[in-house]
Write a structure and sequence with these properties.
By secondary structure, the chain is mainly α. The protein contains 60 helices and ten strands.
Length: 1440
């Protein structure tokens, strides 16, 4: 074929010397393809719309709260395929020889899978809309017409007039200087050896002869077909501008030009115009057109020369050198400046593998390019800036100049793609030649490099159609094109179409006799098919394919072959998607280690395996190890490629995602903002990677509660992806879900539902109803419905998600566990705590199996299960769970991570509930400090922890600090949320409680009423929180002594809760209990006892006996029975309450200690002083530790312990404790407080024991006066003091006053407490004894009978007090001369007890007949009313 056919063989494979048929010619390999779903935020789980604390979670609609948020199913990391046959050497190092026509490896062997099974470059996807074929045709047609017309007139000395003909180069220069080819002379060597010696200071073109036929001695004419001798210099004729690298062999450049101007190829790219004879093809070479003895400083002339050219020909080389040279990039950029048709740029890449040039193409950067003279670099960049309007040295070094250079880079990349597509035949033209298919293959490869996948798909479909017609459907080239088309389809998210193409490819390779089922190419295709199935959620189908291929690859190629390592990587990802975390981590570690050893640590495939391993490590809780790997990779890429290179930016995005998952949100935000700016500068605002960075930034801002800015970024990502990829592609739908999460966090639920339904329907249409992505949308929509209060629909959808995920992924998969977790949250919110516990345990089991016991998601489930167990009244079990979660999160996430601080808060709240106030306060202050540092003082989470601190301070009596913090919380929430927000109203209640506890009852009433009015207005009169406010106000009124008003409010709260929640709801029963306490405070003990029994029965049935709330009811009932003197009946429930609370709440809980104190009082009243002293010792010791020695409750136990020690005869200890109690109460409460007066009375007993009766009487007289003034003359405490004074006066033989005081005590106590109260009976006994000593036995006898019968019934016959009263009665009977047996018989006729004489009537045993207790409360719930029920308190209740 003319000159090309007759050219001698050059001895180097880099020069194509003869044409082969298309079927036998080289394959144009498709470069690695950027995932068209790209821009997917790395490791961005999309599994649930759950709390912001959830770790891993990503776009999680907050339910309570990172997922967190967090919280949720795991990301789908990119899949993997076989690597390139050889790694591209670094730009600065030695390059292999240029090989323009080598035997090409298969398509699969030259590509590698990165994202979700797609062939992806680590490079870029360009966002510029593809230039249409019509626009290309118009532009190239205009260029063809230009060649037939005179060029723009320039001056006679203008460089543009010195282009040389291709014919002269081939037939004269190369033949005259055979050393150019024989010695592989570079262009620089040609200049040094040939150009300069001949031309001197003149341009070489000026020395060429114009006369035809005499330029080459011995030749009569040109060798080019159809050519005649013409002027070797253009001298104003049309020309092509040639941009090439001087460091490359000159013959390499000539070979590329000869290939381009081959007549058959000209017919393709010249759009049907007649081919130009080589004598008319003028090429503007700088080496010939300008003087090589002086510097080129007139860059404007260069721009003019480029602008005047028919086209600029950029000669690419195998090393990508031309893409790193300042002059070459400047010349290429100059070709992009013109808007006229003559500014066409045509990249020449015949015989090159663009995949090996991918890194150089996507990373080309004028700012990092080099020139032989550094001054030229500055000069050229300055001209680029000047053209953009940046003038002056200062401006040239500023940001505008940098922006101009970045715009230059983008323009060059756009022009490269446009130029490749410009050489493709029109879309309507039938593909009939190998040159047509070759041009389309090359253009498709260039489109893939720069991410124009829709264009690449169109071109590959045309290529495939032509190959099937010309070569047949099973030809190797057709199969390779099928493989490439599958990759492009997969990268765009067209998964079913990609699968169909890949299955055709696999079937053809398995049938190919040259390949077969065990050939590496076939196995690589099998790996890719499995990866594609994995991406579609067909995990069960994909796993056996991968295992089969990996096993064969290991046997045939060895474990360290690049294809074997690719199979390991892909199978690891599959196992990860199946939730088999341990197996995934093992395989991915092997892939990373193997690729580092075989390919090197900086190879893109190695980096890809590192990126795949990091989400596995994150899910396993090894976030810090993952961070180290990502930092290492990011630093290596920046060092090697520069910070603005797409691969460096990709590494930075992965690092930012990891930092986000660790809760290092500030650093993550900084990194991703920098990355977003880099992507915008390097690739444009609408590039897929730019949009991916915007999505990641939105997620980070979302987790920082910066919702407004997050919404802007999320909308940008969604709109950009819609325009770039389409509305229903995975990346677009991912952005839809992200925007939904942001809107949900702002409470804009009406806008969220359409977005989620769109995502669900899109995935269902593309992937099917049981695809994991579709099920994720079902899950997310369910959570949204739950947030909107549509619990029934939400539960149904969550159960549908669980069923689908269980079927597709397995019960132990992390996504299945996430749906179980979310259903548990719904059940918990509906107060279905028992069912919620079951669901949380299933979720925990699934996460432990799939993710490991220390993964972040597992620890989230542990924390939430702890909350449910705590609400079920099992604090000991809850504490174990909370401490596990806290220790795990501190290790995995760090002490100051948001999730760690959340668990710290939960643990502190539990310790508060257990009464371990000191430990709880320490933990709360740690959590508060961490949240203030991370989130700020006014963040909702910070204020929540401060709320808990106020409760702790209030319970410890640190009321001033508590009030200060309570006011801060209220102020912060009013500013952030408004005065009527539910959280603000809760803060109002908190302040009111603190004021009430501080004794500022009048001041507390106003905030209590404000909270009630606000909740009634905002939430409604029957809302749970409104009813809580009603009850809280009632308790305040009770403390103010306004008992009737308080009772009205409590009954109103009870009525509301019964109607809204039901009679057996825990809140309803709480109101019953409160009403019982209030009624008891009014002295209506019988009514109170009935209400307390109702609360106990309801709670015991609903939540069981081992529950804190049930034990509260037991404790209340025992207290009521004690208060009315029913000591026999009070003892068992008091003991059950004390033992049960110790078991459920712990020994040091304040309620446990309160029950221990009450039980000691019951034992003391029954005369069981040893038992009383034992339990009071527990109460006193525990209160000293839990509350401190000066706490009022501690002082109360101290006072009672003193009286017990005095009874036991230990006067010294009794006196010491009594003084301690008296001093503490005097200091804390003042001398006139009733509790202080009680300690005065106890000290009087100590004085009496020491023989100081006068001082004792004086003390009790003062206490009696104090009680009369503070309590009133008829109060129980006043009458007990009168009784005590009577006893002391009797001891002083002041019998007249003693009798008067005794009668006052008996009459008053009978009226205040009842005739059978133990204090009444004690006063009756003492009065009878006084009358007996005075000889008034007839008057004493009925009093003693009263005491005996009462004490026997209320305390039991075995009580020392009962025995004492009986013995005194027998003495009186003896003095009356009556028979003891008759007296006993008269007592037995009362039916109260049976007594038998023993030992001659001297000592009697009295056995109580225990009647059955009849409950008298109203019990309207017939369905729940048995005939009788045996309560675990020891009482038998009968229902009438």
């Amino acid at each position: 074929m003319g000159c090309e056919a007759s050219s001698p063989a050059h001895g180097d494979a880099s020069i194509p010397v003869a044409e082969k048929s298309y079927a036998d010619s080289q394959v144009v390999p498709l470069p690695p393809i950027a995932d068209k779903r790209a821009g997917k935020s790395p490791a961005s789980p999309r599994s649930s719309l759950a709390p912001a604390e959830r770790p891993a979670t990503s776009y999680l609609l907050p339910m309570p709260p990172g997922r967190t948020a967090q919280s949720g199913a795991r990301p789908r990391p990119p899949a993997q395929a076989s690597t390139s046959a050889a790694a591209a050497p670094s730009r600065g190092g030695p390059r292999p020889s240029a090989t323009l026509a080598p035997a090409q490896p298969s398509f699969a062997a030259q590509t590698r899978l990165l994202g979700c099974g797609a062939l992806t470059p680590s490079g870029t996807q360009h966002a510029k809309a593809p230039t249409t074929a019509a626009a290309h045709a118009k532009k190239l047609g205009a260029a063809a017409q230009t060649l037939a017309a005179p060029a723009k007139k320039m001056g006679a000395d203008h460089p543009s007039r010195r282009a040389v003909s291709l014919q002269w180069i081939c037939d004269r220069l190369l033949q005259q200087h055979p050393e150019i080819e024989a010695g592989r002379m570079t262009t620089r060597a040609v200049v040094e050896s040939i150009v300069r010696p001949r031309a001197g200071r003149q341009p070489y073109a000026d020395s060429l002869s114009v006369k035809p036929g005499k330029d080459v001695p011995g030749k009569e004419g040109p060798s080019a077909p159809g050519a005649s001798w013409s002027d070797p210099v253009s001298r104003g004729r049309p020309y092509f501008f040639v941009s090439h690298a001087w460091s490359r062999p000159f013959r390499e450049t000539v070979a590329m030009l000869k290939s381009h101007f081959k007549p058959s190829r000209q017919r393709v790219w010249r759009r049907g115009e007649e081919p130009l004879p080589w004598g008319e093809v003028y090429l503007w070479f700088d080496v010939f057109a300008v003087s090589q003895m002086s510097d080129i400083t007139n860059v404007a002339a260069i721009r003019e020369t480029v602008a005047g050219a028919a086209a600029t020909l950029l000669v690419l080389d195998a090393a990508g050198t031309v893409l790193s040279r300042s002059w070459c990039l400047y010349e290429t950029w100059a070709a992009t400046l013109q808007t006229a048709d003559r500014s066409l740029l045509l990249p020449l890449s015949y015989g090159l593998d663009l995949g090996t040039l991918r890194q150089e193409l996507v990373g080309l950067d004028m700012a990092r390019a080099h020139a032989s003279k550094p001054a030229d670099e500055t000069h050229l960049r300055g001209d680029v800036a000047a053209v953009a309007g940046v003038i002056g040295p200062a401006a040239a070094a500023g940001p505008r100049a940098a922006q101009a250079v970045e715009a230059c880079n983008r323009a060059i990349k756009d022009a490269l793609v446009d130029g490749a597509v410009a050489q493709v035949p029109p879309a309507k033209e039938q593909v009939t030649s190998s040159e047509m298919m070759y041009s389309m293959e090359t253009a498709a490869a260039m489109c893939v490099v720069f991410g124009r996948l829709p264009q690449a798909e169109m071109l590959l479909r045309r290529v495939l159609a032509g190959q099937e017609t010309l070569l047949g459907p099973s030809h190797v080239r057709t199969v390779i094109s099928l493989d490439g088309l599958a990759s492009v389809l997969q990268a765009q998210g067209k998964l079913p179409e990609a699968e169909a193409s890949l299955r055709r490819c696999l079937a053809a390779r398995e049938k190919d006799v040259a390949l077969g089922v065990q050939h590496p190419q076939t196995l690589a295709t099998l790996v890719r098919l499995a990866s594609l199935l994995r991406e579609q959620g067909k995990l069960a189908e994909a796993e056996p394919l991968l295992k089969r291929s990996l096993d064969t690859l290991e046997r045939t190629l060895g474990p360290r072959d690049v294809q074997t390592l690719a199979g390991m990587d892909t199978l690891g990802l599959l196992l990860y998607n199946q939730g088999k975390l341990k197996g995934a981590e093992k395989l991915l570690r092997l892939a990373v280690a193997g690729r580092e050893g075989v390919l090197g640590p900086d190879h893109p495939d190695t980096a890809a395996s590192v990126e795949h391993l990091t989400p596995v490590l994150c899910d396993a809780g090894k976030l810090q190890e993952a961070e180290l790997l990502l930092r290492r990779m990011a630093v290596a890429r920046v060092t090697k490629l520069g910070a603005s290179h797409p691969e460096a930016l990709s590494a930075a995005v992965s690092l930012a995602a990891n930092l986000r998952d660790q809760g290092k949100l500030d650093e993550a935000e900084s990194v991703v903002r920098s990355t977003l700016g880099g992507c915008e500068s390097a690739m444009g605002a609408h590039h897929a990677d730019t949009l991916g960075s915007a999505a990641l930034l939105a997620d980070v801002l979302f987790k920082q509660n910066k919702y407004a800015e997050a919404e802007v970024c999320a909308r940008r990502a969604m709109v950009g992806r819609e325009a770039l990829f389409g509305e229903d592609t995975p990346a677009t739908l991912e952005s839809v879900a992200l925007l939904a999460a942001v809107l949900q966090a702002q409470g804009r639920t009406d806008e969220v539902a359409p977005l989620l339904r769109r995502s669900m329907m899109g995935h269902k249409k593309a992937l099917g109803a049981l695809d994991p992505e579709t099920l994720t949308d079902v899950h997310n929509l369910a959570v949204l419905l739950a947030a909107k209060g549509k619990s029934t629909e939400a539960d149904a959808m969550l159960r549908r998600a669980i069923a689908g995920r269980t079927k597709v992924l397995g019960v132990a998969h992390a996504d299945t566990a996430q749906s179980m977790f979310s259903l548990g949250e719904q059940l918990q919110a509906q107060q279905k705590t028992v069912e919620a516990e079951t669901m949380f345990r299933k979720a925990l089991d699934g996460r432990e199996k799939s993710l490991g016991k220390t993964s972040v998601a597992t620890l989230e489930a542990v924390d939430r299960l702890g909350m449910v167990v705590k609400s079920l009244g099992r604090p000991a079990d809850a504490e174990v769970l909370f401490r596990r979660a806290l220790a795990g999160r501190e290790k995995a996430l760090g002490a100051n991570h948001a999730d760690t601080l959340t668990t710290m808060h939960h643990c502190a709240a539990l310790l508060h509930a257990k009464g371990e106030l000191g430990a709880a306060e320490t933990l709360t202050r740690r959590a508060l400090a961490g949240r203030e540092a991370n989130l700020g003082p006014d963040d909702p989470a910070t204020l929540e922890t401060k709320f808990l601190l106020v409760l702790l301070l209030k319970d410890q009596g640190k009321l001033e600090e508590a009030e200060t913090h309570a006011r801060q919380i209220l102020d912060g929430r009013e500013r952030a949320l408004g005065v009527d927000h539910p959280d603000t109203l809760a803060s109002v209640c908190l302040l009111a409680e603190v004021l009430s506890t501080s004794g500022k009852l009048d001041e507390a009433e106003a905030p209590f009423r404000r909270a009630l009015d606000g909740r009634k207005r905002v939430l409604g009169p029957r809302h749970e929180e409104t009813l809580n406010s009603v009850q809280e106000l009632a308790l305040l009124l009770q403390r103010q002594g306004r008992l009737l008003d308080a009772e009205v409010l409590v009954r109103r709260a009870l009525d509301g809760r019964e109607k809204v929640m039901g009679a057996r709801h825990p809140q309803t029963l709480a109101s019953v209990q409160t009403l019982a306490e209030l009624v008891a405070a009014q002295g209506k003990v019988t009514d109170a006892e009935s209400l307390a029994a109702r609360a106990l029965y309801g709670r015991e049935k609903a939540i069981g006996m081992d529950n804190a709330a049930t034990l509260d009811s037991v404790a209340l009932l025992s207290s009521l029975l004690y208060s009315v003197g029913k000591l026999n009946e009070a003892q068992n429930p008091a003991l059950n309450a004390a033992v049960g609370r110790e078991r459920v709440l712990g020994q040091m809980h304040v309620d446990t200690l309160k029950s221990a104190h009450l039980l000691a009082l019951v034992y003391r009243a029954r005369g069981k002083y040893e038992e009383s002293e034992e339990w009071m010792g527990k109460a006193l010791t525990g209160r000293v530790v839990a509350l401190g020695p000066e706490h009022p409750d501690t002082l109360a136990s101290t006072d009672v312990m003193a009286s017990l020690l005095l009874t036991a005869g230990d006067g010294k200890k009794a006196e010491a404790l009594c003084k301690q109690a008296l001093a503490g109460r005097m200091a804390a409460l003042g001398p006139d407080h009733p509790d202080t007066l009680q300690s005065v009375c106890t000290m009087a007993m100590v004085l009496r024991a020491k023989g100081h009766l006068d001082k004792a009487v004086e003390s009790v007289r003062g206490a009696l006066a104090g009680f009369e003034q503070s309590r009133g003359k008829g109060h129980h405490d006043t009458l007990v003091a009168a009784h005590q004074l009577s006893v002391l006066l009797h001891a002083q033989d002041e019998n007249v006053e003693a009798e008067a005081m005794g009668r006052r005590a008996v009459d008053g106590l009978k009226k205040a407490c009842g005739e059978r109260h133990f204090d009444t009976l004690s006063a009756v006994h003492e009065l009878g004894e006084l009358l007996t000593d005075q000889g008034c036995i007839n008057e004493a006898e009925p009093l003693l009978r009263w005491a005996v019968t009462g004490r026997d019934k209320m305390m039991g016959s075995d009580s020392p007090d009962t025995q004492q009263s009986y013995e005194l009665l027998m003495r009186v009977v003896d003095k009356q001369g009556r028979n003891a047996k008759e007296a006993i018989a008269s007592l037995s006729t009362t039916g109260r007890y049976i007594a038998q004489a023993n030992g001659g009537g001297k000592k009697l045993d009295i056995q109580a007949a225990r009647p059955t207790k009849k409950a008298t409360w109203e019990e309207p719930y017939e369905a729940d009313r048995p005939n009788s029920t045996k309560s675990t308190t020891g009482l038998t209740w009968r229902f009438d």
